[in-house]
Amino acid sequence: MTVDAVAVARRLAPRLAARAAEYDRDGTFPVEDFADLRSAGLFGLLVPPALGGLGASFAGYAAVATELARGNGATALVFNMHASVTGALGALTEELAEALGVPEEALAARDRLLAEAAAGAWYAVAMSERGAGSRLSQLTTTYEPVPGGYHIKGAKAFCSGAGHADAYLVAARSAADGSVVSQFLVPATADGLRVEPTWDSLGMRATASHDLHLDVTVPADRLLGGVEGLALVVAQLMPHWLVASYAAVYVGVARAAVDAAVEHLTARGLTDLPAVRARIGRADAATAAAELVVAEAARRVDEAPGDAETNRWVWRAKLLAGIAAAEVAASMVEAAGTSATRRGHPLERLYRDARC
Asked: What is the reported pTM?
């Protein structure tokens, strides 16, 4: 990368942190954060340089996500959705496309969507559904071919960034053959797309993960890969975009909890207490260990994506990062004491974000 994206994310993190309490309190989308991400060119983080992007690897993304999450976990989590779309598109090499039978016109559409991301467009993911979660085999959203494209009908839940993204990656089942699951990038301007404000959660309140209702028709080039049924194949080949990408975010949340606790305890002159120092030491070690596992998973993804051992590391990273974030945040709140549980205190927010 000609731009040090990790350094850019590190510089942005304090700005994100300064706004995090307000966005969390109001449960509103971090519009200013995303304006900063766009200005910094991070929407093109995983876009190849030939298409105007920074050409980062998965490991590069993981490092950026961790730094962003040290500022605001909710912002990093929504950015993760965009990265999962652009990362998967960017990973669709000509060789892989040939093996999957992806037509030339679909590759041209891929390049157009990636170039738009590098220019400042950002994409959300509309996969989960009420009662089904993200299990592709249980989706009730359906699609069917129509002249010139596809008609998609259904409802999605937990769509982070709903109402703010430029397009949504929508997973749907074929109305003709329920075993076929495909993905479409639906423009936010499509007629029949409606956001239902439903997100009022314990943590990650600023993700605006509202419900999305679809009764839309999209052009044929909005079918990702240009071939029906690729969603299940991609999920098997690239589980890191559905799993380990979250892990990097939660490592950042854990690190932010340690940082906030140290700042709080230092201001109160409590860092010399042996019990406090022990808690901070254990939290720091747990966070560093999770960070190393995420880094190892990311290294393996870059070197051998889809390999069975790589995928095992992917799942380990998600598990250990989630455990570390929850346990570290809880321990840091206990170390800091009752004053850290007040609404608006960074540790109170980080505790809730880590639990969610």
From this structure: 0.95
- Please determine, for residue 1, whether its predicted confidence score (pLDDT) is greater than 50: no
Query: What are the strands, taking DSSP E only, across the chain?
Result: 123-126, 142-146, 149-159, 167-174, 181-187, 193-196, 210-219
| Rounded Cα–Cα distance for residues 238 and 245 (Å) | 11
How far, CA to CA in Å, does 176 sit from each of 154, 221, 234? 15, 20, 21
CA distances from 136 to 3, 8, 188, 193, 212 (A): 37, 35, 22, 21, 17
Listed in sequence order, the residues at least 6 apart from 188 whose beta carbon sits closer than 8 Å to its beta carbon are 165, 166, 167, 168
Q: What is the pLDDT of residues 49-82, one digit of tens each?
A: 999 999 999 999 999 999 999 999 999 999 999 9
Which secondary-structure segment (H or E) carries 58? Answer: helix 58-71
| Cβ neighbour number for residue 98 with a 10 Å cutoff | 10
Report how far residue 245's alpha carbon sits from residue 249's, in angstroms, rounded to the nearest whole number.
7
- What are φ and ψ of residue 305, in 5° steps? -65, 135
